[in-house]
């Protein structure tokens, strides 16, 4: 005979789901409101984004510092630097500031109107920066010497990532770099389980409530789809990047440097 209470025994999965949907909206912290319970970068998120992302992504600022330092090797006088999914423009602004003495163009693109407004405001006194509202899949990557996707590719539909990376590789300059930061899935269930639990503890330690941690995880279903590190590396190799290198890793968060080969691969 089971020790479960009769009530618990009698609650069907369908009922649990109904109760879930009767809640007014998902609580995810930092005053971000998600009326549809699904994560969105629009609907007022931009105003709270900087605080939220810095507390949610382990090493968020360290990663920016790393990209900035690496950029010295790739930013060229007449080249273009493109941040795809620039959100509020924090990284684009840092890169443009670092290389302001050079004659390079810094382009930040995002699909969310509110993000673009905040980014334009942040960079308003930086003459070398342009912020545009355009989808990653429509950006012209010609002449780019450095392209940064800092936790953006994970929001592109899975089946479109390979083609996007191939086009980026084809259009950008030889010897140029793609710096890709992504949340990843771990290669086995045991590691994934440990990582999830440690990541939950990380967020609880940053003053998110248990309800907000759960609400955020649930809100990202079907919105943020991580691949494993091996899958991201395979996509980059298939796109034609020579030897992608993992240069940053904390829990499931990973940064990869992928350089377009200077010499075209021999045919056949
Ligand atoms: C996690 S945020 C990026 C954070 C930002 N790179 C930073 O360093 O603060 C992901 C961003 O990608 C944008 N995004 C999602 N899909 C996109 C797409 N198809 N094209 C361009 N931007 C996209 C979102 O609007 C969001 O601002």
List its traits.
alpha/beta; Rossmann fold; two-stranded antiparallel ribbon; 10 helices; 40% helix; globular; binds S-adenosylmethionine
Describe this protein's structure.
With 268 residues, the protein is an alpha/beta fold. It has a domain at 55-185 and 223-259: Rossmann fold (3-Layer(aba) Sandwich). Helix content is 40%, strand content 19%. The chain contains ten helices and ten strands. It has helices spanning 6-10, 13-22, 46-56, 60-71, 90-98, 113-122, 158-171, 189-205, 210-219, 229-238; strands at 26-27, 33-34, 80-84, 105-110, 129-133, 144-150, 177-185, 227-228, 245-250, 253-259. The strands form two sheets. Strands 3, 4, 5, 6, 7, 8, 9 and 10 form an eight-stranded mixed sheet that branches. A two-stranded antiparallel ribbon has the order 1-2. A hairpin with a 2-residue loop joins strand 9 (245-250) and strand 10. The model has no long low-confidence stretch (mean pLDDT 89). Bound molecules: S-adenosylmethionine (SAM).
